[in-house]
Amino acid sequence: MMSRTRKTLTTPSSGEEKKAANNSSFYNEQKGDCSVCAESDVLLVNLSKHCTHPATSCIDCHRQSITTDIKSKGMSSFTCAAPNCNRKYEPDEYYPLIDAQLIKIVDKLLLSKFLESNAEFRWCKSVKGCGAGQLVANHRELLGYYTCHACGQMMCFRHSVPWHTGFDCTEFDAEKARNPEFASNAAVAEFTKQCPNEHCKTPIMKHEGCDVMTCCRFGTHACGETKNCDHGGRNYCGQRFCWICLGKIDINPITKAFIRHCKPNCKYSSLNG
User: Fold this and answer.
1) pLDDT band for position 104 (50/70/90)?
2) Predicted confidence (pLDDT) per residue in 139-182, tens digit
């Protein structure tokens, strides 16, 4: 990942506000009440020069929001939360808010996202939750499958599922079109993974959202934030886990922070703790 020039951030004190106004890396600064923490008479800023609306959030709230999203959800892309804005921040616009460890984590996540944009890149979809990824540059020379370099699982390059033994890719597509039950089973293989809790193993389907999943009918990390969620019944245990590698994600009972157990190959392993 290419390095970027970053400015060192210090939150201005009352005696430094005039100096900060001349040297700040932020935009549309003004004193007022923060719309997030409701703190009065604080410096409000926008992170992006493309945000033309008045600033409504303080530096600490911007920092806390981005830090939480990195640590809890493994996010590397952030947008302005102001109504009717949703401007996407460039990395050098929010890097001054986070420490060196988080910058290193985000750099790794951005690298993974860059690799994912390459048509020859594939994540291993082993049911065991390998979590490794690789470039398959010779996919045109293969018979439709390749072998994961980390776990040895045979994978279908076209469909990004474990190799469909007995069918080449054309036959696999034809059978899905002909046989609804076969198509349903293929969809389960592509979009569903088993809960990693050895006492559960309930199939969980990922519809959208981040890669933090919960063994819950609703299939989202957010359900655990609601104390009254029963996760959809006794077939769901409520275990959080990483969608990429099936590593369990526990909750610190005091701080409520995520405690990840991602596998070494996983792109989120830097968030383990």
Assistant:
1) very high
2) 777 778 899 999 999 999 988 888 998 999 999 999 999 999 98
Nearest residue to 61 (alpha-carbon basis) of 42, 88, 77? 42
E strand map for 47-127? 57-58, 121-123
Q: What is the CA radius of gyration of the chain?
A: 22
pTM value is 0.72
Q: How many domains does the chain have?
A: 3
Query: Contact, 145 vs 157, CB < 8 A?
Result: yes
Question: Listing from the earlier edge strand, what are the strands of the sheet with 248-251?
Answer: 212-214, 240-242, 248-251, 258-260
Last residue within a domain, chosen from 169, 193, 217: 193
Structural contact between residues 136 and 124, judged by C-beta atoms closer than 8 angstroms: no
The full length of the chain comes to 273
Instruction: Judge if 109 and 168 occupy the same domain.
Output: no
- Tokens 């949703």 map to which residue? 86
Last residue of a domain, one of 91, 114, 137: 114
Contact call for residues 242 and 226 (beta carbons, < 8 A): no
Segments forming the whole domain that contains residue 109: 17-114
